[in-house]
Amino acid sequence: MKEEHIVTGVESETAGTGQKDTRNSGPGRLLIAVYGVFALSATARAGYQIATKFAEAPLAHLLSAFAAVVYIVATISLAKPGRTWFKVSLAAVLVELIGVLVVGAMSLFDPVAFPHDTVWSVFGRGYGFVPLVLPILGLLWLNRRRPSDSPSRA
């Protein structure tokens, strides 16, 4: 008898294939843990910046808050099984990559616009460039753990 686990209305096995959703096992657990640390870190940083220094650099502080939301969504969606959560994970990690590339470039080319650093400033230099590497690793992991019944890559 095949055991099925229901989590928020989504089966943990990909539909009809009998293949387990394994994004949250093995190295995926480490990836989720790192995303969790960044979710906490970015949230704390943004909260502090907004509460104490918002007027000095509103764009930078709002971008820190946006990064925190992206990390929270990525953490939760990577931990949840199912095709829908896979899509949410993919979207969150892509937004993160675009964010770190755009904010990283903007902070280099227009430092006046960023008088205070964000998580993504200078491609995450303040965090050892982990914000630049993390979405790349996330996308590689998601590609390896793509549900087999999802639409093919175009």
Task: Characterize the structure shown.
It is a single chain. Mean pLDDT is 84; it is low at 1-19. Helix 1 (27-53) runs antiparallel to helix 4, helix 2 (58-79) packs antiparallel against helix 3 and helix 3 (83-109) packs antiparallel against helix 4. A two-stranded antiparallel sheet has the order 1-2. It has four helices and two strands. It is mostly helical and 154 residues long.
Instruction: Kindly report the average pLDDT value.
Output: 84
Radius of gyration based on Cα positions: 17 Å
Reported for the largest beta sheet, the result is: 2 strands, antiparallel
Largest sheet, spatial ordering of strands: 1-2
Question: Which structural class matches the secondary elements?
Answer: mainly alpha
Q: What's the SSE pattern?
A: EEHHHH
- How many strand units? 2
Overall shape: it is elongated
List the helices and strands and how they pair.
Elements: E1 6-7, E2 10-11, H1 27-53, H2 58-79, H3 83-109, H4 130-144
Antiparallel strand pairs: 1-2
